[in-house]
Amino acid sequence: MTANDPSPNHLQLTRDGQLRHFLTLDGLERGLLTDILDTADSFIEVGERTIKKVPLLRGRTVVNLFFESSTRTRSTFELAAKRLSADVLNLDISTSATSKGESLSDTLLNLEAMASDMFVVRHSQSGAPHFIAESVTPGVAIINAGDGRHAHPTQAMLDMLTIRQHKGGFGGLKVAIVGDVLHSRVARSQIRALNELGAEEVRIIAPGTLLPRDVESLGCTVEYDMARGMKDLDVVIMLRLQKERMEGALLPSEREFYRLYGLNQEKLALAHPECIVMHPGPINRGVEIESAVADGPQSVILNQVTNGIAIRMAVMSMAMGGQVAERQQKQSERGTA
Ligand code: CP
């Protein structure tokens, strides 16, 4: 599997530029990202109703395929699909035939034989959702729920929705992403989204051992000193130390990391007074963030979680719409041939 296809959009967009899979933010232009944010905005109100349902995916079957653990992403995809009136199947990988040696391709063929319309895929291998999108039956949409170190596009979009709600837009914003960028699919997608949406500066604050080799080429500046890096920030995004992906000793100790890069009230006071604090979760209190900050007045961490439902409703409904439009176009071309 590879995540290096330079033109993923031949897979994720229809010929007239509609979403039909959602695999990566690479190559997606500002207009489409703004459409996703605007569509999500229109779904926020659905979550505030007594009956939290719209019929956009009625009769459709969405399969959640999580080959890695998840709390927020899996739950909010499930709620989003249910609020769109889809039937939802959560495949329990630990008790599925995958544990008896069935390959990913065979598992998918069997799920496709049950007339599934959409797979939401989380996988430890970078490129797994891309690989599935290449081979899946036409008409079935693939949504990336996080693949290896490669991308977590719905997380980045829910983060963008949260920033837009609190800051009104992206122009002039200084945003820092702090911590373990090396292992973070979230950071890669966030850097891409912030640049495309027009943030003034995307700043990475991290020790050299937690930075990818070509980090500046992603579209960011780098600061190794947290006190200098916090200056003038409008948004600070903390990352979890991804110990499950670390090979070898990249840090002297968690305690030392917290001393140098953990966000506490003292360091937050160095940013703009209205700087918001974000974290994709799961948070590790006392490792990358102090409880007083995580639960404090500048934290929007739980708003991010709530916005995950609206963003996932937007992406799922847009991808299904793209699949339907593409099928109709092909039928009409066959009719006129
Ligand atoms: N942010 C995020 O992906 O969290 P989960 O691993 O709980 O889904």
Structural key phrases:
Rossmann fold, 2 domains, five-stranded parallel beta sheet, four-stranded parallel beta sheet, 9 strands, binds phosphoric acid mono(formamide)ester, Asp_carbamoyltransf, EC 2.1.3.2, Asp_carbamoyltransf_Asp/Orn-bd, aspartate carbamoyltransferase activity
Explained architecture:
This protein is α/β, with parallel strands linked by helices and 337 residues long. The protein folds into two domains: 141 residues, Rossmann fold, CATH 3.40.50.1370; 152 residues, Aspartate/ornithine carbamoyltransferase (Rossmann fold, 3-Layer(aba) Sandwich). Helix content is 39%, strand content 13%. The protein has twelve helices and nine strands. The strands form two sheets. The chain has a five-stranded parallel β-sheet with strand order 7-6-5-8-9. Strand 5, helix 7 and strand 6 form a beta-alpha-beta unit. Helix 2 packs across helix 12 and helix 3 packs across helix 12. The longest helix is centred in the last third of the chain and has 36 residues. Bound molecules: phosphoric acid mono(formamide)ester. Catalyzes the condensation of carbamoyl phosphate and aspartate to form carbamoyl aspartate and inorganic phosphate, the committed step in the de novo pyrimidine nucleotide biosynthesis pathway. One of its GO terms (biological process) is 'de novo' UMP biosynthetic process. GO terms for molecular function: amino acid binding; aspartate carbamoyltransferase activity. It is an enzyme of class 2 (transferase). Pfam families: OTCace (PF00185), OTCace_N (PF02729).
